[in-house]
Structure formats: C-alpha cells, structure tokens
Amino acid sequence: MSIDFGQLVLGPCLDAFGNPYQWKSQSLASSQPINGIFDDGFKSLDPLGEMPGVTPTNITTSMPRLGVRLSDFPVAPAQGDEFVINGQTYEILEVQPDSHGGACLELNLVDINPS
C-alpha cells in the first residue's frame, strides 16, 4: 500500500498556506490559477556539492521559489513558463520535483521595464 502524499499532505498544506497565482504555460493558450507557496527568503547552497573529506562551502541566495503540487497542472510546468506573483512576473528557471508529487519551482524575476 502506498501513501498518496499529494492528496494527504501537499493538498492540505497548499489549502492552508498557499495562494492562487496565474500560470502561463508555453504550451497552453490561456493562463490559469495554480495554488502554490511562494518563498523569497534565503536558502543555503553548497556550490561544490558533497565531497568526501571536504568541509561544505555554503553560500546563501535569495532566489525566489514556488512550492506546488504537480497534479494541479493540466500539463507539466516547464522552464520558461511564467507566474504572476504579487503583481510581478517570474519565469521558471528550473523544475525540481520531489518524490511525493510536489515540486519546487526555482524562479527568475522577469524585468518587464528594461532600462
């Protein structure tokens, strides 16, 4: 028997803490709301990766990201798709699926008014 984490865990978390954001897929004609948890806080990164016998070299980044449930999408989210979050447009840089039906979407802020 397998546990459906998407329904039993991710769904209630997104219902409690998520917000609907407009998602524009490159493969669909119109945008649609997708529930997600937006985070623009700091995250620790190890640019060298794990190396035996070497002390980790951590840096931090404030890369924005959106936690989502993959079953909420009619087609898979992809690099280059866009979200409108709090009035700003973000483009998906990378889709990082977890093993429980969710994903972390690493985002880039799109500069809509280049100087």
Strand content: 35-45%
Taking the sheet with the most strands, its summary is: 6 strands, antiparallel, barrel
Which range best describes the helical content: under 10%, 10-25%, 25-40%, 40-55%, 55-70% or over 70%? 10-25%
- What radius of gyration results from the CA coordinates? 16 Å
Main sheet: strand order: 1-2-5-8-7-6
Shape, please? globular
Mean pLDDT score, rounded? 87
Q: Termini, distance in Å?
A: 56 Å
Question: In terms of per-residue confidence, which ranges show pLDDT below 50 for 5 or more consecutive residues?
Answer: none
Which structural class best describes the helix and strand composition?
Answer: mainly beta
Number of helices: 1
N-to-C series of helices and strands: HEEEEEEEE
Q: What is the count of β-strands?
A: 8
Q: Could you explain the architecture of this structure?
A:
The protein is mainly beta. It has one helix and eight strands, in the order αββββββββ. The protein has one helix at 5-17, and strands at residues 19-24, 32-39, 43-45, 59-61, 65-69, 82-85, 88-97, 102-109. The strands form two sheets. The protein has a six-stranded antiparallel beta barrel. Strands 3-4 form a two-stranded antiparallel sheet. A hairpin with a 2-residue loop joins β6 (82-85) and β7. The chain is globular and about 50 Å long.
